[in-house]
Amino acid sequence: KGAVTLKAGSTSLAAKKTYSLKSGARKTVTLKLKKALAKSRKVTLRITAEGGKTVTKKLTLTRAQGAKATASAAPKRVVAIEWDTVENLHMLGMAPVGAADLKGYDTWVAAPRPKGLKDVGSRQSPSIERIAALKPDLIVVPDYRSTKNLAQLKKIAPVLVTHPYPASGSQLNAMITDFRALANAVGRKARGEQVLQELSNTLARAKTKVKNAGRAGQTVAIATPGGTSSAPAIRMFTTNSATADVVRRLGLKDGWSGSARYGFATVGLEALSRLNGWLAFVYPPQFQRQIASITKTSAYKRLPVVKAKHVRTLGGTTWLFGGPRSTMLFADRLAASLSK
């Protein structure tokens, strides 16, 4: 039970020979690959477990730097409890076998995903039965979604717990850390680093675009609707949010101070009177009615940023709680809106 890792070392393992791990033995075998084995990169690993049961695994070794080879089979049947994992797996060239609240994903994230995924219920309370029925070999769940069912999930499959909202520090850095952890967990480390390089390049290009538009150093606050049509409210993204971090990395100043667990503070319209610089509204089409109810009020029209015509709206669906893909989309759209 569990992965067996093969590492380069001083002990030789001959091809076509059976080795048994005795009860209590560590699950790490040290070997020095012989030329024939290194050339074929194929090995049949037979493990005699406690009680005499023998498990046979046919493995293909991948040679890495430092002459290390890993025989741990990468997960292929992943269940995603949060939307960012669905998005991130797509960027890594994978598809989960199941995910929570796929209808919500299609509405709010609106990012590409494979068809035919199984819905495992809500993100808050996913169905343990549906997850188990999919026979996953990895479940990915954020820490704030795992407080009630982590023990149950671990009985089904190994669990990767992500930490998108750390108590301190940048949530953008936390997103990058979680993305790397996922890429490593599913055996897509190289692809993961490629995606992160794309993210870095996108931020650099967007920063240049902002500079060329003469906006470098200006203050920009990011907002999205947070109430209802009858009781509109505004979510202002705080200094620790990934969104505000992107603003700074584009050579701008983030326009809303403070820190919040999930990276935003919900305020009334009157709080926007303290804004200086620019206000960028980010919202999907389904928020159109809320935006209309806000922008038609006299209180909104009296705001200094409105009078100065320093309000921009980011078109399309721009998800502000996603991974590298969503972050790149936001950076591009923000730079484009400030270049008008």
From TrEMBL:
Tell me which GO cellular component terms the UniProt record holds: outer membrane-bounded periplasmic space
Instruction: Supply the PROSITE patterns for this chain.
Output: FE_B12_PBP (PS50983)
Record's superkingdom? Bacteria
UniProt keyword terms in alphabetical order: Coiled coil, Signal, Transport
Q: Is the keyword Nuclease in the record?
A: no
Which Pfam families does the UniProt entry name for this protein? Peripla_BP_2
Name the major location: other
Compartment annotation = Cell envelope
- Coiled-coil annotation: which residues? 189-216
Can you supply a Gene Ontology BP term from the record? iron coordination entity transport
Entry-linked InterPro entries: ABC_transptr_periplasmic_BD (IPR002491), Bact_iron-sidero_bind (IPR051313)
Q: To which protein family does this belong?
A: Belongs to the bacterial solute-binding protein 8 family.
> What's the protein here called?
Iron-siderophore ABC transporter substrate-binding protein
UniProt source species = Solirubrobacter phytolaccae
